[in-house]
Design brief:
Radius of gyration of chain A: 20 Å
Shape of chain B: elongated
Number of strands of chain A: 5
Mean pLDDT of chain A: 95
Radius of gyration of chain B: 20 Å
Distance between the termini of chain B: 14 Å
Oligomer: heterodimer
Helix content of chain B: 25-40%
CATH superfamily of the largest domain in chain B: Lrp/AsnC effector binding domain/regulation of amino acid metabolism (RAM) domain
Distance between the termini of chain A: 14 Å
Order of helices and strands of chain A: HHHEEHEEHE
Chain lengths: 151, 151
Amino acid sequence: MLDDMDRRLLRYWQADPSLTPGELADHCNMTPGKAARRIARMQEDGVLQGVSAVIDWTALGYTVEVSLRITLDKTQSSAFDDFLTQARTIPEVTEIQTFLGRVDVRLNVIARDMAHYQQVYRAGILTLPHIADIEALMQVARIKAQEALPL
Amino acid sequence: MIDLDTTDRDILRALSRDASQSASALGRRFGLSQPATWRRIRRLEEAGVIRGRRLRLDAEKLGFGVTVFLGIKLATKGRVSLEDFERAVSAIPEVQTVEHVLGLYDYRLRVVARNLPDFERVLRRRIMTLPGAGEVEANVLLSEERLAGPI
């Protein structure tokens, strides 16, 4: 179980994931050794899975980002598996989520421009199996993106 | 926009998986010296390709058993209400991401909660009471995968 000090470490680290372990210990008024031991324990317990670099696709020329909300034809028992297996092979798909609700699956799709998006949509997305319905939400702006947990 | 060669792409892919790897470890893997690797990482950061870093935490192990994606339509439109809405929604700790979108909804939210009753509390007391909030659609997250993308 986590105690208040663990939570405090995670809170500071979440707010600035580029902090080095030494700086993090400083912020939390802990010795570097103590902080390192706590971090190692949280990693062992699987609470902390790691640190990832976040790619800004617009800096690489991908200016279009679309959230595709997909309903599947669930009369086919293998609909989810077939769909997911094939969706993973489309390079422009950066996230796949499945849901309980009106929408079954969401694909996050990026493209260089609208012409490229149309190409990905027609040649990739529309050929995926068992699609019953698709709705698109086009991203206009990212207002909050930190994805932090309210610890 | 910057051009990436194969080695840049290898480094970017490796860092998006695990950003805690040192420049010397990455260099050994891709046949580069430590300073050469470091310079390449610096260049990716300076060009904004690496937007930042993100802690990967196991939400469930930290007590957040429910993640919900919300689509929100604004009831009243206009410049003032958009700004008020964005400021108010971003201030809710349980709201992890906010995107302004075009399509069936105006905003896309990612919300975490301890459990379903807790989610209901967040929805009723914080989201439904936001200035301008109209129709809300909720889909409960069942599974999620993040893919490497077209690097």
